[in-house]
Amino acid sequence: MKGVSDLPDEQTLASRVAADPRDLPARLDLARLLIARQQYEPALEQLLAIVRTDRGFEDDVGRRTMLSVFDMLTDYPDVVSRWRRQLSTALN
Fold this sequence. Notes:
Blueprint: H1 10-19, H2 24-36, H3 40-53, H4 61-72, H5 77-91
Helix pairs in contact: 1-2, 2-3, 3-4, 3-5
């Protein structure tokens, strides 16, 4: 896995996603960058888009990473609950 310092900048990644919403590697890199900056909800948006587009992408990395973010947000149960519901809807 790439370290955050190895990732392109946020603007480059966001431009790639805007140009091609199915650019899942760019979405994943953007999510990782946002997580490193503790911008969890924007990261969860990117991860949920990955799950909705291709559940199996990189061995279900979208869902697995969302679960890891939920673990980071234990002090924010309302946020976790809201995103868990969205994830559950996307999976069903």
